[in-house]
C-alpha cells in the first residue's frame, strides 16, 4: 500500500542586516569629534516549526515565498539599528525537509514544537565607532549589513489522518470525502472501489484544517485478515477520531445496528484500545434510506444534506483530541553557519573564496578608502584567506572574487 505524501517547494530568504553608520560627534568648539556611528541591526531568521494545528502544506502551493524582516541601519550618536523579527513558518507534524537539488534530508520535524533554522539572517554591519584604535583615530568607514541566506527547500509530508472514515464496502466513504475536500477518489457502484486510503484536507470557515482518510471497506472477519484485513486496520491506528458511516440503504438489507456491531467487533478484535478512540456514528445515503430505525445524525453526500453539521461535530472532536495529545520531545535544531574558508576555481581561470568570515572581511562601506582597504587586507590575512589562496595555487595576477569584491592577487614580498 502506498503512503500518501504531500509535497511542495518553498523559497526562504533570511532578513538582511542593517548597515553600520559612519558618523562623528559634533561638539561646541570641536570641529570634528570622535567616531560615533552605530551598528546596523541583525536581520530576522526563518524557522520551520511543527504545529499540530496545521494539517497540510496547502498554504505553500500558491505562495511558496517567505522572507524574514531586515534589520535597520545604524545612525550617529552610537544609535544601533533595530533587529529584524524572526519569522516562524508553521508546518504539519511529520514534515521532512529536503535539499531542493539533491533531495538529501536536512531535518525531520516529527513533534509539535520541533524547530529548525531554515534560513539564517544576515548580521548587521558595525559602525565606524567599532574601528577606533590607536592607529585609526578617525575611521572613515563602516561595515555593510550582511545579506540573509536565500534557499529553495523541498517539504514532504506523510500525513497522519485526524479522522479515519470506516464502514462497510460501498457505504459512501469516497463520495463523502470527495464532497467535503479536494480529494478525488475512485467512486463506483460496487464493493471495494477503494483499494488504498484516500486522504483529503477539510478547511473550516475559521481556517481550521483536518485530514480525513477514506479507509477501504471493512467486512466481517477483517481483524483476522479477511478482505483487506490488517492492510487497512493499520491505518485506523494512526487516526485521532473515527467516523463510522452506516449504510441506510444497504444492498443486503443489513440494518444500521447490525453494521455497527460488526464494525466495532472487528476493530475491538484487532486492537481493543481503538474502541476508546473518540468516534462519531453517522447514517449515510439518507436520500436513499430504506430504514428509518437509525437514531443519530444522517447525511447525503450526493445532496450535501447534513454535511456541515457532521463536519462541525468532527472538527470539535479533532480539536479536543489534538489538545489532549502531549508535546513529545520538541527540539530546536540549528545549522552550521559556513564559516570555513574554501577556494574554488571558475572556468575562466579566476578564483572564488567561499566562507562567511571571508565575505564579512570585505563587506565595508567604501573599499576605495585607503583605511578600509588596509583593514580588509589585514582581516583577510587574519581569518586565513591568504593562506588558503596560496595552498590552492593562486599566483600573482590571478583574479580573486570574494562576495561582491574582486581584486588581482599579488604575492607578499
Can you offer a commentary on this structure?
- It is elongated and about 100 Å long.
- The protein is 18% helix and 23% strand.
- It has 3 domains: 1-158, GTP1/OBG domain (Spo0b-associated Gtp-binding Protein, Chain: A), CATH 2.70.210.12; 163-324, 3-Layer(aba) Sandwich (Rossmann fold), CATH 3.40.50; 342-408, GTP-binding protein OBG, C-terminal domain (GMP Synthetase, Chain A, domain 3, 2-Layer Sandwich).
- It starts with a strand and ends in a 5-residue tail after the last strand.
- The longest helix is centred in the last third of the chain and has 18 residues, at 307-324.
- The strands form 4 sheets. Strands 3-1-8-5-6 form a 5-stranded mixed beta sheet, with no helix packed on it.
- The model is unreliable at 1-5, 185-195 and 219-230 (pLDDT under 50).
- With 413 residues, the protein is an alpha/beta fold.
Amino acid at each position: 500500500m502506498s503512503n500518501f505524501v504531500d509535497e511542495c517547494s518553498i523559497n526562504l530568504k533570511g532578513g538582511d542586516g542593517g548597515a553600520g553608520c559612519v558618523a562623528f560627534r559634533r561638539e561646541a568648539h570641536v570641529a570634528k569629534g570622535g567616531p560615533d556611528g552605530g551598528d546596523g541591526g541583525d536581520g530576522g531568521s526563518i524557522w520551520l516549526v511543527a504545529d499540530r494545528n496545521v494539517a497540510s502544506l496547502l498554504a505553500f502551493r500558491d505562495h511558496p515565498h517567505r522572507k524574514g524582516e531586515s534589520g535597520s541601519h545604524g545612525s550617529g550618536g552610537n544609535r544601533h539599528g533595530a533587529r529584524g523579527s524572526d519569522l516562524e513558518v508553521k508546518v504539519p507534524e511529520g514534515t521532512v525537509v529536503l535539499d531542493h537539488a539533491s533531495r538529501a534530508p536536512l531535518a525531520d520535524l516529527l513533534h509539535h514544537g520541533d524547530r529548525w533554522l531554515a534560513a539564517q539572517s544576515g548580521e548587521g554591519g558595525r559602525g565606524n565607532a567599532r574601528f577606533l584604535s590607536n592607529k585609526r583615530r578617525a575611521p572613515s568607514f563602516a561595515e555593510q549589513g550582511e545579506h540573509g541566506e536565500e534557499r529553495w527547500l523541498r517539504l514532504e509530508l506523510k500525513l497522519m489522518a485526524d479522522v479515519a472514515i470506516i464502514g462497510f464496502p460501498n457505504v459512501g466513504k469516497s463520495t463523502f470525502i470527495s464532497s467535503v475536500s479536494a480529494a478525488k477518489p475512485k467512486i463506483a457502484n460496487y464493493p471495494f472501489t477503494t483499494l488504498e486510503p484516500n486522504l483529503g484536507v477539510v478547511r473550516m470557515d475559521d481556517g481550521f484544517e483536518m485530514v480525513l482518510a477514506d479507509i477501504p471497506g471493512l467486512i466481517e472477519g477483517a481483524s483476522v485478515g479477511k478482505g483487506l484485513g490488517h492492510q487497512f486496520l493499520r491505518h485506523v491506528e494512526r487516526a485521532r477520531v473515527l467516523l463510522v458511516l452506516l449504510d441506510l440503504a444497504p444492498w443486503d438489507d443489513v440494518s444500521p445496528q447490525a453494521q455497527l456491531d460488526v464494525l466495532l467487533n472487528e476493530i475491538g478484535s484487532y486492537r481493543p484500545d481503538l474502541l476508546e478512540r473518540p468516534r462519531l456514528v453517522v447514517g449515510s445515503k439518507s436520500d436513499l434510506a430504506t430504514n428509518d430505525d437509525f437514531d443519530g445524525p444522517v447525511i447525503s453526500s450526493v445532496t450535501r444534506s447534513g454535511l456541515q453539521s457532521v463536519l462541525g461535530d468532527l472538527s470539535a472532536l479533532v480539536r479536543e483530541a489534538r489538545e489532549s495529545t502531549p508535546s513529545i520531545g520538541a527540539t530546536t535544531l540549528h545549522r552550521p553557519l559556513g564559516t570555513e574558508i574554501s577556494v574554488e576555481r571558475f572556468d575562466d581561470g579566476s578564483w572564488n573564496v567561499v566562507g562567511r568570515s571571508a565575505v564579512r572581511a570585505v563587506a565595508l562601506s567604501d573599499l576605495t578608502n585607503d583605511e578600509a582597504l588596509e583593514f580588509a587586507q589585514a582581516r583577510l590575512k587574519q581569518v586565513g584567506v591568504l593562506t588558503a589562496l596560496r595552498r590552492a595555487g593562486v599566483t600573482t595576477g590571478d583574479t580573486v572574487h570574494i562576495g561582491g569584491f574582486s581584486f588581482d592577487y599579488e604575492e607578499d614580498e
